[in-house]
Amino acid sequence: MFWAVAISALAMSAIVALRYWASSGFFAWVTERRMPGRYGALKPQIRREMGWSLVSALVYGVPAGIVAWGWEERGWTRIYEDIGAYPLWYLPVSLVIYLFLHDTWFYWTHRAMHDPRLFRRMHAVHHASRPPTAWAAMSFHPSEALTGAIVIPVLVFLVPIHIAVLGLVLAIMTLMGVTNHMGWEMFPRRLVHSRLGGWLITASHHQRHHEHYLCNYGLYFRFWDRLCGTDKGLSDKLTEQTG
Ligand SMILES: [Zn+2]
Ligand SMILES: [Zn+2]
């Protein structure tokens, strides 16, 4: 049993590493095409971002691999495959619940890690990216990676979710993690500056966190930042899409 769990964890680490490589590599390539040379001077930093991210992939794979094994072999978790097991309206609702709970966990742990006592030990690695690049998506110290790695594996025991919606949650997590760090805004100005945009976090919002540190702590939504008075608006240094 030990080896089955260990192999599941290692396989999951490999999947997370490949996912990182493919998604960050893709957006780094898009960035190079849009703004040639933008990452040119950041090569040593990018190498460090890759190194930390691959260690993070290893950390992320462990809880995910254990839970995946338990789901397959022991019927753990509340992940369901039969689409009719819950009403159809529950599919989008469960998506929002997962994103909101993940965002809540991220906001408060992230904010705690900006306390000087924790910052140096846990979070300085992530902020060593100045400015961050698409490769910084998982550039965390292992202790910080662990706080991120346990969220979804814990939530699947608490909140029922269809396997496809879980895939969507992971896809959104990956997409936003990469694009929020890549140094330019991919969403149209019309959306970013709309009323809806005022509640969503994209690159323009997270870039400001990397510029000013003690603000804009959220992950997907600006709800907690706005409620707690830590929302300092959008960075004005990013290139934006027109339209
Ligand atoms: Zn960041
Ligand atoms: Zn931070």
From TrEMBL:
The keyword Iron does not apply. Keywords: Membrane, Transmembrane, Transmembrane helix. This is Sterol desaturase family protein. PANTHER family: STEROL DESATURASE. It is found in: Membrane. Signal peptide: none annotated. Residues 96-230 form the Fatty acid hydroxylase domain. GO terms for cellular component: membrane.
